[in-house]
Structure formats: structure tokens, C-alpha cells
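Need residues for this backbone.
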């Protein structure tokens, strides 16, 4: 043991530069790998914390031709499925999240109302059986079978009342003006869970046409395949629907049961993660780790000629070869231990910085102790194994070599080292090229024409207003810098309503967007056939304008314009509009309709067009007008910011890959610098002789670096096609080909 400690001390004293390079390279790569591993673990354990997760499935309609999932169900249909099929042990219908975060009012000690934004969802009593929340206080069943009761998570109990036990406390629905009593408090579901930590309340029965609920089914083990087959059978769907789908294969749907585990990574229309992104992160983390280990191996090999004389002297003096090899291997392990400790410091700083927002997982050290300990032990073991090769190599020469001059690596040793350096260069260049491709995609996203005018457009929620949107809008336009206003139920980027109707003997399905008459004009959406909405509308009929994709998909011509169409009430088709990207660019443009509905309160947002001049003053004027008509918090959002948020994960991933690419290059350069320094030391005599014989500095520089330059050129030639193939195959692509047609070509 004393010999090993002296060996480590000798390394740090006489090989400071190589030690610093190795510690810096290993510490940064360890930090990157640990952070990546935390995120990957978060993704792969998503939903696995639930007791019955293995047997939970989400019911969904799958449109085969469009490859679109529609995971909506009505309460009566859910009851039918649960009652008819013995495979279903329990079920739960949960209401969809709305566009506007619900608000709850809580009375303070002095009698004032304090408003909090908290998610509130309705759920059937089966929620308790399917998801088995851990109830901390109260009667959870009572919350879901009695109107006016709430089941709330512990974090909201503390947020609202400052105590975890809030049972019996009273709150008020800010918009509904309804009183609720807290019936029970449950332990928060983990962050990596599809189940929302919301306030759950009683769910009344609803019509069969109201498909505004998620349906979760707990099935008997290994019964999902048989149940899905039954759901798509003639006995369940009926002969008419089967016949209709046979006659119109473009409208064919399949009832599917989506495993709960798959919702996060695999189901494109539902996921908030991406399996390609997760695997790409893991691959990048491993590659950066490999590059750091290559540096460690190369520098250890480069040190052999300068240490072989000392090592063989030790052998001549009787020190066991096995002990020598153990000491050399433990030198690298000691450097790895120091690097690991330094990596933990990096992660602690990183977790408290804005960069932590790039990850969905909590990367704080205290939240990931077991992952970090497991990785730490594994990395130390790997480092020990990596260092065994140079340790064995350095002690493999004959003892009489100790009395000879200096040494250089064998031809085989040089070949191995050159190959490893080339691998480093290839990885670094691949990441740099992919980062460049991703930057092109980001520019494409930011400059893509969505089909709507989005510059200087802001929006506010309408629910907080004490007046109608027209009165508020007219007040705003008193300011000459507020040029126009309109309103709709949804914000561009997410349309949460889908209709299925009959038209001209065809069953049509499309997204439906309730708007006001000037909406298309406000956003510059072109009418290509027929007319825009009528402001006056003397007929009183509800109006509908389809997009061009609807016309193409269902093969309609202009003859449908003017025809009757059943919206919520009797309506008429007034025109056809040009296509716009009303969802994320990840999704193709789909059939959609703008609709004017009568007698329904389905306008949730007012959009305001603001002059680009004097923006701070304009925003202040809007704020003052808002406070005149509302007591709620002023929360103005610009549409551009909202649309950019649709690609938050992709943007974060792009920044991470760019950052990791830079780290890879820096680690590789550090290793190359160390090798060049060692090589220059070994060639001092040769350099001196060449200078005496008249060689210039430029010639000597070429002599020292021509091999590295050749390796760099070979690496580039290999890396370019690898980067192209990886990117276009989707392995490291951040967005689908639909976002950037043609990939990177």
C-alpha cells in the first residue's frame, strides 16, 4: 500500500500536465454522463412508479390513413366498455386539461380572497382503483362521488393552506363561483408520471356525443390483445360502421389500447418525450465518456517511454511485477476518483443554473443519490480496467532495458494510439456537423410561414373580464397603437376540439376552431373559395369555413359552399380558406374548420394587434385597460413566444447537443495537446539535429503535425457520411421530416 501511495505521489509531482489534462477531461465527461444518465433513467422509469402500471391502458381511436391517435371517449361509452368486457377490472374517465389554468380563491385570515392557479379535473370514482393514489388524510371516495368536494395533492394543500392536512377546508371556484370542501389529500404523484397532480372533483354524467375525457382501463394481466380484438369486432362496433369503413377505407379507424408505459416516449400524438431524443442523449453521454477514456489511455501510453527506466529499475530491485501493474492501474483510478468528486461539484452548480431547465428530470445531487453512487462505482471500475493495458504494456519489457537509452512506442502501440485519436476526431466532427444541421432546423422553424400573421400579436384570457370581449376590444382600440382585436376558443398551436359529421354521404372528421367573424382577416388567412364570415349574418345560421386540406382529403369541390351543415346548431358552409399550421410543425396539416357558433360561450382568448412602435407604453396601456375591466392578474402573452414554446424540448435538445459537441472537441484537443507535448519531448534530439542541419521552424512544425493533420482529414471524410446517415435516419434528429422536408439535404 505504501508503494502504491508513493507511486501516485510521484505521478502528481513529475507528470503535472498529464494529470491535469486527465482530471479535467474525466471530470467534465463524468459530469455530462451522470446528468445524461439521470435524464435517461427518468424517461425509462416514466409511469413505472404506479402500482398497477403494468395493466393500465389508455383507450384511443386510431385514424389509420392519417396515423393520428385520438384518445378521447365519452362517459357512456366508457361505462359500456367496462360493463361489457370481463377483461376490464376497473376504469377511470378523467376530463381533459383546458386551455386556461383554473383558479381557486381561498379566504385569508382577514376575510380577503387570495387567488391561486391550480389544475382542476373531474374524475370518475374508478380513479382511485386504477391509479391507487396514496391517501394521506380524509375520505377520497367521498371526493369523487359527491358534488362540491375535492381530492387535492399535498403540495396544493400546503400552497393553499400552509398545512398538509387541509381536510374540511373550503375553497371557491374563481370563475364558477362554486364552493368546494377538501374531502381528502393524496401524496403527490412523481414528476415522471402521466397522472396530473391536480385537484380532482366529482364527474357528472354526460352525453354520448361529448368525447372530452381520457379513458384509462385496468385490465386483467395479458388480456389487452384479446380485448382490442373484441373492441374492433362487428359485435361491438356494429355492422353499419364495419360496412362504412369497408366502403370508405380512408375513414377507417381502429380502437386501440395504448400501454401506460408507452405514453411518454412512443406515442407521437400524446408523448411529451421522445425515444430518439433519449437514446441520442445516452449515446452522446457514452461517446463523451469514451473520448475521455481514450485520452487517459493515450496519455498513459505516451508516458511509458519516460517511465520505463524507473519501472524496470523497480523490478530489478525486487518489486513484484503484479504490484507494479496494480500501482499503475490504481494511478488512473485515483485520477478518476478525483475527477468524480470534481464532477459532483460541476453538477451541483449546473443544477442551480438556468441550464438545468434543459432537462425534464431533477438533476440535483440529493434527488439522485443511488444513481450517482452506482455510476461512480462503475466508472472507477472501468477506469481501473482501462489502465490495465498501459500498466501491462509498461512492465512487459525486459529488465536489461533499464540500462539503455530512451524508448518509443512499438509500431503496434503507435497504430493503436493513432486509431484511438482518429475515433476521437470522428466523434467530435459528427457532433459538430449534427449541431450545424440542427441550427439550420431552428432557423427554418423560426422563419417558417405558418400561414398566419403573428408579428406583434398578443393575447389575454377572456375569463377574467367583467365585460364582453367587444367592449374590452373597443376600449383598447381607443389607443391608435392598438390596431385590431379578435377572439377564439383556442390559441394557434393547439386546437382541442374534433368533430365527426356527415357531409354529402361521407363521414368527415376534422378539428374545429370556434372564432369570431373577423378572425381570418385579423390573422391574414386567405379565402380561396367562397366568402369570409359575415359580420352581420342576417340568417342567424352558424357559419363554417373549411381549410383546403379538408377539401383535398375528402375530395369535395366548390359545390359544397352554401350547403347546410350541422355544427352545434344548424349552420352553413360559407367558404374555403388556405391551409395554416394550426398545430406544431411536427404534425402535418390536417382537415380543419373555423366556425362561428351561436349562443355558446366558447371564446376563451382575445387577440390584440399592437404597433411595433412604443411597445412598453402600448403594453402599459393594455394593462391599465385590463385592470379597468378585471380584478385578475394581468398576464399578457405574445403569440410568437407561445409558438416558440411548442418547440421548447427540441430547442433545449439542440442547445445540449451543441454544448456537448463543444465539450467533445475541448476534451479531444486537450488529449491531442498532451500527446503532442510528449512527442515533442521525445523528439528533442531529432529537432535539434534538424535545426543544425538547416531545417526551418515551418518544416519542423510540419514534421511534428503532419500525422495529426492526416488523421484529422481521414476523420472528416469518415464523419461527414456518418453524420448525414444518423441525422436523416432520425437517430439524432430533433424534429420529424415533416418539419424540415428533405432532412439535411
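Answer:
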Amino acid at each position: 500500500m505504501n508503494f502504491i501511495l508513493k507511486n501516485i505521489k510521484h505521478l502528481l509531482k513529475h507528470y503535472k500536465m498529464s494529470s491535469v489534462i486527465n482530471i479535467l477531461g474525466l471530470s467534465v465527461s463524468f459530469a455530462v454522463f451522470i446528468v445524461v444518465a439521470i435524464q435517461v433513467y427518468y424517461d425509462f422509469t416514466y409511469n413505472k412508479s404506479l402500482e398497477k402500471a403494468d395493466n393500465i391502458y389508455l383507450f384511443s381511436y386510431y385514424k389509420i390513413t392519417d396515423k393520428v391517435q385520438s384518445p378521447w371517449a365519452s362517459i357512456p361509452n366508457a361505462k359500456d366498455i367496462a360493463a361489457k368486457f370481463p377483461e376490464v377490472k376497473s376504469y377511470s374517465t378523467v376530463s381533459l386539461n383546458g386551455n386556461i389554468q383554473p383558479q381557486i380563491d381561498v379566504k385569508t385570515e382577514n376575510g380577503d380572497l387570495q387567488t391561486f392557479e391550480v389544475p382542476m379535473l373531474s374524475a370518475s370514482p374508478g380513479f382511485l382503483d386504477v391509479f391507487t393514489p396514496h391517501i394521506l388524510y380524509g375520505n377520497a371516495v367521498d371526493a369523487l362521488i359527491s358534488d362540491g368536494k375535492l381530492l387535492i395533492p399535498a403540495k396544493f394543500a400546503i400552497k393553499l393552506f400552509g398545512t398538509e392536512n387541509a381536510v374540511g377546508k373550503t375553497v371557491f371556484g374563481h370563475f364558477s363561483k362554486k364552493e368546494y370542501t377538501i374531502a381528502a389529500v393524496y401524496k403527490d404523484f412523481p414528476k415522471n408520471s402521466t397522472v396530473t397532480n391536480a385537484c380532482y372533483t366529482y364527474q357528472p354524467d354526460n352525453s354520448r356525443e361529448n368525447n372530452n375525457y381520457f379513458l384509462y382501463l385496468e385490465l386483467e394481466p395479458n388480456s389487452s390483445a384479446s380485448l382490442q380484438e373484441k373492441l374492433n369486432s362487428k359485435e361491438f362496433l356494429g355492422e353499419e360502421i364495419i360496412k362504412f369503413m369497408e366502403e370508405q377505407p380512408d375513414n377507417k379507424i381502429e380502437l386501440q389500447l395504448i400501454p401506460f408505459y408507452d405514453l411518454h416516449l412512443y406515442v407521437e400524438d400524446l408523448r411529451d418525450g421522445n425515444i430518439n431524443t433519449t437514446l441520442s442523449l445516452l449515446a452522446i453521454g457514452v461517446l463523451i465518456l469514451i473520448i475521455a477514456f481514450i485520452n487517459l489511455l493515450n496519455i498513459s501510453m505516451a508516458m511509458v517511454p519516460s517511465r520505463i527506466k524507473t519501472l524496470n529499475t523497480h523490478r530489478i530491485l525486487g518489486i513484484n511485477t503484479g504490484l507494479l501493474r496494480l500501482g499503475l492501474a490504481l494511478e488512473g483510478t485515483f485520477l478518476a476518483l478525483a475527477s468524480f468528486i470534481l464532477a459532483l461539484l460541476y453538477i451541483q452548480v449546473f443544477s442551480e443554473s438556468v441550464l438545468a431547465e434543459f432537462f425534464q428530470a431533477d438533476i440535483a445531487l440529493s434527488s439522485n443519490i443511488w444513481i450517482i453512487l452506482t455510476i461512480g462505482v462503475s466508472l472507477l471500475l472501468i477506469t481501473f480496467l482501462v489502465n490495465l493495458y498501459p500498466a501491462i504494456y509498461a512492465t512487459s519489457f525486459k529488465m536489461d532495458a533499464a540500462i539503455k537509452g530512451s524508448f518509443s512506442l512499438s509500431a503496434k502501440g503507435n497504430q493503436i494510439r493513432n486509431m484511438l485519436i482518429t475515433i476521437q476526431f470522428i466523434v467530435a466532427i459528427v457532433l459538430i456537423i449534427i449541431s450545424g444541421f440542427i441550427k439550420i432546423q431552428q432557423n427554418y422553424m423560426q422563419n417558417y410561414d405558418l400561414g398566419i400573421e403573428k408579428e406583434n400579436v398578443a393575447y389575454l384570457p377572456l375569463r377574467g373580464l367583467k365585460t364582453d370581449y367587444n367592449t374590452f376590444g373597443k376600449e383598447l382600440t381607443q389607443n391608435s397603437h392598438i390596431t385590431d382585436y379578435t377572439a377564439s376558443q383556442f390559441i394557434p398551436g393547439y386546437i382541442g376540439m374534433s368533430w365527426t359529421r356527415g357531409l354529402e354521404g361521407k363521414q368527415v372528421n376534422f378539428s374545429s376552431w370556434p372564432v369570431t367573424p373577423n378572425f381570418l382577416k385579423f390573422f391574414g388567412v386567405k379565402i380561396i373559395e367562397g366568402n369570409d364570415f359575415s359580420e352581420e349574418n342576417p340568417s342567424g345560421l352558424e357559419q363554417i369555413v373549411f381549410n383546403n386540406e379538408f377539401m383535398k382529403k375528402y375530395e369535395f369541390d366548390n359545390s359544397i359552399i352554401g350547403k347546410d351543415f350541422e355544427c352545434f346548431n344548424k349552420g352553413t358552409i360559407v367558404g374555403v380558406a388556405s391551409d395554416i399550421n394550426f398545430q406544431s410543425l411536427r404534425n402535418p396539416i390536417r382537415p380543419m374548420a373555423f366556425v362561428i357558433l351561436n349562443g355558446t360561450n366558447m371564446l376563451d382568448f382575445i387577440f390584440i394587434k399592437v404597433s411595433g412602435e412604443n411597445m412598453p407604453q402600448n403594453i402599459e396601456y393594455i394593462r391599465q385597460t385590463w385592470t379597468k375591466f378585471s380584478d385578475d392578474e394581468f398576464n399578457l402573452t405574445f403569440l410568437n413566444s407561445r409558438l416558440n414554446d411548442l418547440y421548447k424540448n427540441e430547442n433545449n435538445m439542440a442547445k445540449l447537443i451543441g454544448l456537448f459537441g463543444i465539450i467533445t472537441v475541448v476534451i479531444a484537443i486537450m488529449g491531442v495537446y498532451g500527446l503532442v507535448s510528449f512527442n515533442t519531448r521525445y523528439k528533442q534530439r531529432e529537432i535539434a539535429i534538424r535545426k543544425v542541419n538547416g531545417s526551418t521552424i515551418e518544416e519542423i512544425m510540419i514534421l511534428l503535425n503532419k500525422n495529426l493533420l492526416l488523421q484529422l482529414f481521414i476523420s472528416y471524410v469518415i464523419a461527414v457520411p456518418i453524420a448525414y446517415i444518423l441525422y436523416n435516419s432520425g437517430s439524432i434528429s430533433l424534429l420529424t421530416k415533416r418539419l424540415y422536408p428533405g432532412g439535411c439535404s
